[in-house]
Amino acid sequence: MAVTSVETAGGKTRRGAAVLLEVLRSEGVEYIFGNPGTTELPLIDALLEVPNVHYVLGLQEASVVAMADGYAQAARKPAFLNLHTAGGLGHGMGNLLNASVSQTPLVVTAGQQDSRHTISDPLLFGDLVQIARPAVKWAQEVAHADQLPVLLRRAFHDSTAAPTGPVFLSLPMDVMEEMSSVDIGEPSNINRQAVAGGLPELAQALTALRPGKVAIIAGDEVYASDAADEVAAVAECLGAPVYGSSWPSRIPFATAHPLWCGNLPTQATGIAEKLSGYDAIFALGGKSLITILYTEGPALPPSCAVYQMSSDVRDLGRTFWTPLSVVGDIRASLQALLPMLQKAAAPQRAAYAASGQKVAEARRAQRAQAVAEVLAHPADAVISPRVAAWETVRAIGPDIAIVDEAIATSSDVRLFLESAWSAQYSFLRGGALGWGMPAAVGASLGLGRDRVVSLVGDGAALYSPQALWTAAHEKLPVTFVVMNNREYNVLKNFMRQQNNYISAQEGKYPAMDIVDPQIDYQALARSMGVPSSRVTRAADIAPTLEAALATDGPALVEIMIAAG
């Protein structure tokens, strides 16, 4: 092992890698997520002297980024990750874009070639700053070891400042080996719980609308602000339904709450239809009306006003005109708004209560109808996605975290969720596949190595199966549930919804079937040290899952569901 530090008359002199680890320890970092290469050797070597910072090994950089994403979301603090040069950063870009869209706070680093010979175009060299820049808030290369404390602390600060998201530092190998006596200082304490202005006007505007004519949209920012209780109190005051984002990162609201009405559709026409009965929406957080395929017409009816609260000023009035929107932390601002709302709503308290009761009754009826539909098909020869979702959610229960990337069953899974825990469910917000399995590994670490269920489609499972090895290596209680329909079912369904695709008319879909040969997920799991089982009957889903959930470490359950 190389010398990492020496004592001199001027104080402690140590390598840049040791300086970096000192800063990480002071910032409360528990884990480094990474996959090492030659340019990361100084950091790997320095870890031998810092046993309380644990290196979580991912076998490919896309998995590394998603693990860090899952950890940061679950732990509610920035994650630190270390990639390998231009190629490794390139491997991680898909999930780095996911993290950017989800606004996950990440401090992303990558080892860079020794700057003393970059003029000769050495192997693995690339302009890391320019490669990373489209997917991060800012990117910079560290020029000297003495810069590490300031730039690292700046990265941690800025990753958590609104809008939250990844930042990037390039770490040249010579900087990590350079000796430095720099003082790392202390972490700053920054309170970002700013209370929005304009709250009296907002309270008057919301209560001026008729009871039952305001819908609340709980966006991802509600989770980041830990404001589920405050959203529930506002909804109860107004007797208002609470919808989730159309394509969420989280369900940030208790799904067992009587005013929870599920997530909005993913097409503009569907959103407009769902919101057509309201005179206004109160959107908490930004980017809650994300659409996938184009449909004619806006997502909001022209008669529906938009009131919004967000810590990110860029989201206010971004797409839809708003008579009043306010900038502030969701939790702190709702705590200040609630007494004003209660006072303004007092004259119509009975009408608001009746509105809330009507919402709750409609929600119960919708869920009961879905359950009845499932129970009518208990012994079908082929498991439908809805039956698979019901049996899976029933086995998981209300207290185990779910990380979902099984698109074929995701809408049904959300329909059947009924938990008082507002942090139970997370989803692929960015849309680039390969996030779910490694994100579940990171989520388990972020929850103190607690139990997590990873729901993943068979296609998505093939993007980052390396997560299985890390789960086994770390002995994490992650249960991977592969919903296997042997095809890209979502793409086929999109084509069927259009009138102009020949594929849908003829029932032929090039490059959308995962057959010939079929993937052996049982063998894949076992090859990475994870016990596995396959389910072909609906009646076997719950007992098989319950057995897997009772194991100490990871397990994989493959559920064969209907194609088409």
TrEMBL record:
Residues 15-117 form the Thiamine pyrophosphate enzyme N-terminal TPP-binding domain. Keywords: Thiamine pyrophosphate. The keyword Cell membrane does not apply. GO terms for molecular function: acetolactate synthase activity; flavin adenine dinucleotide binding; magnesium ion binding; thiamine pyrophosphate binding. The keyword Cell membrane does not apply. One of its GO terms (biological process) is carboxylic acid metabolic process. Residues 213-337 form the Thiamine pyrophosphate enzyme central domain. Residues 431-559 form the Thiamine pyrophosphate enzyme TPP-binding domain. Belongs to the TPP enzyme family. This is Acetolactate synthase large subunit.
